[in-house]
Amino acid sequence: MNSFLSINDVENLPALVQEALEIKKNPHVYSDLGRQRSMCLIFLNPSLRTRLSSQKAAFNLGLDTAVLDVGSQGWNLEFADGVVMDGDKAEHIKEAAAVISSYFDVVAIRAFAKLQDREEDYSEQVMSAFKEYCPVPVINMESSTGHPLQAFADLITIEEHKKVEKPKVVLTWAPHPKALPQAVANSFSQWMQAANFDFTITHPEGYELADEMVGNAKVEYDQAKAFEGADFIYAKNWSNYKDYGKVVSKDSNWMVTQQKMQLTNAGKFMHCLPVRRNVVVEGAVLDSDQSIVIPQATNRIFSMQTVTKKILESTH
Ligand code: CP
């Protein structure tokens, strides 16, 4: 693996999941792999899990890390080509990426969708620029349209908890007061389909994801019907794709409740976190045995560690 930007960088998904499960059993077995090498974690947006799980994964591999919070510590970056930089952007990605790559062996980036211009976000301008101008491997820690490390951790978690070979997995839209990107939902949809699970997406009409992200997933507008017999319920809000970046519904009837979880096949509840209690999901669901959000977050270590291990091996 030379870089990890999306599921397209995965050659053999079942083998990758098995590797992650093996690493989880013995996390320090590759602690020499990262010796005398280092990774820079670049954040253009906030994070708790991604930042800490990435540092933990690097620690387990013997890899040094540095964290750059561009918003508070770095120069404001310009990504467009040929612009006159007389505004608030002090440094161009061309110089920044080249300099960072001269200090580190791997670069990982978080850069959320701005939700202003769909074409710009879906062109992955920021992640593509880092990929183009960094001569070292690049890891996506959530970009405009995808969060593959999260989806990989979600898949590891489902593999650990599933009771049948091909579980019914439901991604449900849930209300939220703010406009959120589609990245988590997009990647989850891609990875669940790549895993060949029985996969349904449920959301209010008008909240369709991009066609290329929906793929061959079933789309069910009746949330209760979608929940029937589900083995896993994955809740996530996303802002509107058609009326791009807008919050066109805050319908609290879409919140996941204990009552709705009873429609499932004793299904497990998942969310990537952070989650707003009693907005996205009833607190009682999170506090119940059905919730696996903490093991899911723990698996962020092992998705990152597996990806980083494969990159270090290919660049040794
Ligand atoms: N799920 C996730 O990416 O969490 P953070 O935003 O806290 O990193």
Automatic annotation (TrEMBL):
Record's keyword annotation contains Amino-acid biosynthesis: yes
Associated pathway: Amino-acid biosynthesis; L-arginine biosynthesis
Function: Catalyzes the transfer of the carbamoyl group from carbamoyl phosphate to the delta-amino group of N(2)-succinyl-L-ornithine to produce N(2)-succinyl-L-citrulline. Is essential for arginine biosynthesis.
Enzyme nomenclature, EC number: 2.1.3.11
Family to which this protein belongs: Belongs to the aspartate/ornithine carbamoyltransferase superfamily. SOTCase family.
Chain positions recorded as carbamoyl phosphate binding sites: S47, L48, R49, T50, W75, R110, H147, P148, L149, Q150, C272, L273, R300
Entry keywords, A to Z: Amino-acid biosynthesis, Arginine biosynthesis, Transferase
SUPFAM superfamilies noted in UniProt: Aspartate/ornithine carbamoyltransferase
Protein name, entry field: N-succinylornithine carbamoyltransferase
PANTHER family with a match to the protein in the record: ORNITHINE CARBAMOYLTRANSFERASE, MITOCHONDRIAL (PTHR45753), ORNITHINE TRANSCARBAMYLASE, MITOCHONDRIAL (PTHR45753:SF3)
Signal peptide from the UniProt entry: none
